[in-house]
Amino acid sequence: MEKNHRTHTVSSDEMTGIQALERNAPSRPMTYGQCEKIEFEYTRHGTLTLIGNFQVTTGELIAPTIGPTRTEADFASHIEQTVATDPKASWIFVVDNLNIHCSETLVRKVAQACGIEQPLGKKGVRGVLKSVASRQAFLSEKSHRNRFVYTPKHSSWLNQIETIFGMIMRKVIRRGSFTSVKDLRDKLLNFIAYFNRVFAKPFQWTYTGRPLRAKPAA
């Protein structure tokens, strides 16, 4: 049997409570000596959650999920649909310590996808499913074809997808006007497609790990 060597390393997280706000009047464009003026009154049309994937080696946003909620079922389904884009490859997902990132539903889907037939136990009682710690240990097991790497607690900002969420907030959400949640969803997907065509590239980290020192006063 030919051994598969493809491995996708993906930063994943959720951008929640994205509001579909429709401005009650058009924005006034920037003119000489004056900045753009954005209407401050708006109509609310609901909210969406974006579950995003930043592929570390290519810088692309792949297989996004956009829906009304962020539940353990939503995240587990998101991982399932992401893996389905290349089911024979190995996948490494970098995530924070949110409970839905180590849920019973996710454990069961990963076990099924990896062909793991061991008993998983019962949540809160025994086995792999017993606790958050036992589920994280199972999901981060290096021998599994699909596994998770958890960022240190209180350091979720280390996950590269957070930088992309900041870009989406600045370029799509903050100055946008959306007539419905469908309009918001369409504009998010259009931006992601545009991002992949124009901006996608891997991050080049420059921080060496040394503590930053303030410059001495002159």
The span between the termini is 68 Å
Structural class by secondary-structure content: alpha/beta
Topology-level CATH name: Nucleotidyltransferase, domain 5
Q: Report strand order across the widest sheet.
A: 3-2-1-4-5
Determine the strand fraction and express it as a percent band: 15-25%
Helix count from the secondary structure assignment: 5
**Which CATH architecture is right?**
2-Layer Sandwich
Structural shape = globular
Uncertain spans, ≥5 residues at pLDDT below 50?
Answer: none
CATH level-4 homologous superfamily: Ribonuclease H-like superfamily/Ribonuclease H
Write the element-wise H/E pattern from the N-terminal end onward.
EEEHEHHEHH
* Tally of domains: 1
Q: How would you describe what is shown here?
A:
The chain has a single domain, classed as Nucleotidyltransferase, domain 5 (2-Layer Sandwich). The protein is 28% helix and 21% strand. The chain has helices at 72-83, 104-113, 132-139, 161-173, 181-198; strands at 7-23, 42-55, 65-67, 90-95, 146-150. The protein has a five-stranded mixed beta sheet with strand order 3-2-1-4-5, sandwiched between helices. It is globular, with a radius of gyration of 21 Å. It starts with 6 loop residues before the first strand and ends in a 20-residue tail after the last helix.
Comma- or semicolon-separated keywords:
about 220 residues; alpha/beta; Nucleotidyltransferase, domain 5; 5 helices; about 20% strand; globular
In short:
This protein has 218 residues and is an alpha/beta fold. It has five helices and five strands; from the N terminus they run βββαβααβαα.
